[in-house]
Amino acid sequence: MNDRLRLVALGEQPADLILKNGKIVDVFTESVFEGDVAIVDGYIAAVGSYDNAKEIIDVQGQYIAPGLINAHCHVESSMATPEAYVKEELRWGVTTLITDPHEIANVMGTDGIHYMLQAGSHMPINYYVEAPSCVPATPFEHSGCIMHAAEMAELLSDAGVLGLGEMMNVPGVLMGDAEVMKKLKTYQEAGRVIDGHAPCVTGKQLQGYISAGIDTDHESISWDEAKEKLRSGLAVLVREGSACHNLKAIIEGAVKENAATSRMAFCTDDKHLADIKNEGTIRHSIQLASELGMKVEKAIAIGSLNAARIYGLKDLGAVATGYQADLVVFNNLEELIPSYVFHKGQDAWKLAIKETWIEPGKMLRGSVNIGGEITAASFGLEHFDADKTYSVIEMVPGEIYTERGAISGADIPSALAKNELCLIAVVERHHATGNIGLGLIRGYGIRNGAAATTVGHDSHNLLVVGTNPENMVVAVHALQMCQGGYTLVENGEVVDTLPLDICGLMSSIAGDILSEKLEKISNRAYAMGVSPWFDPFISLSFMALPVIPKLRITDIGLFDAENFKFIS
Question: H or E segment at 289?
Answer without folding.
Answer: helix 282-291
